[in-house]
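Homework help thread (please don't just give me the answer)

Our assignment gives two proteins as sequence + C-alpha cell strings and asks us to describe the second one. The first is just a warm-up. Here they are:
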Amino acid sequence: MTATIMSLSATAIRWADVIEYPHTGAKSKILLEDGNCRYTLMALAVGMHIAGHTNPRNATVNVIEGQGVLMLGDKEIILESGVFVFIPAAARHAIKAATNLAFLLILSEQAADSN
C-alpha cells in the first residue's frame, strides 16, 4: 500500500507545506485514500505534458496554483487557480502545464461493472 500524507483522523494541511515542484516531469502525493476516493496532490513542472489517457473512475481536478490546459475530449479547458473540472469515467483527457501547476486530483469510487 502506498503511504499517504494524512490519516483519516487528520483535519487539515497547508498547501505550502506539501507542494513540491519537480525540476522536470510530474510529482504526485496521495494525501488520503479511503474506500470511496483517492485524494492526490499533483505538481507538474512548467512545460510538462501528461499524454491523453482514460480512467475507469470519475475524477475532479481542483487547481491550487499555476496555469495550464486540460483537453477533455475535444474541449480545451484553461486551468488556473480556482478552476474546478469534472472528468467523467472513461473520458479521454490530457494536461499541459504552462507554468508550474499544482492541483488536487480526486478519483471517486470505481464505477460498478455494468454486466
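The one we have to describe:
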Amino acid sequence: MKNVVHVYTTIVPPESGSRWKAVTLVQSSSGRVLAEDVQHLTFKHGAHAESGAPACTAALAAMLQGLLAAKSIRARNVVIYSDRPRTLDALNRQTRVAAAAVGTYLQLRAMAHSFASVEFRYAPYPAISDLPVMAAGG
C-alpha cells in the first residue's frame, strides 16, 4: 500500500464514576502527527450488561473515531492499531461480537468500506504508550 495513514487507538477505563475515554492518534506514513483526539464515551444505562461489552464497544468507538479522522484528511489506505486483541478478533471475524457492541461494530465496518483499504492490527501498550498520557491530559 502506498501513502498509508496509521491510526493508533486505545481506551481508558472509567475511574470512580467517570466515563470511558477513547484516545486516537493519526500519523502519516512518514510519522508526522496528522490528528490526535481524546473523547469521553457515554453508554446508555444498563445497555452493557454482558461481561467485557463496555470495553469492546469503547474500543470499537475509538477505532470508528480514528476512521472518521482519517476520512477528514482524505486518506485512502489506513491501518488501525488497537491494544484490545478480543476486539480485533471480532473485527477479523475470528470471534463473535458482544450483542451490545453490534451497532458500533456495524458502523465501523460500513465506514471501512469507504476507503481503498483498511487493515486492523494489534499494537501492544508500549507501541502506543503516549496515548494514555494524552487521555490523562498530559
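TA reply:
I won't write it for you, but here's a hint about the kind of observation we're looking for: The longest strand covers residues 4-12.
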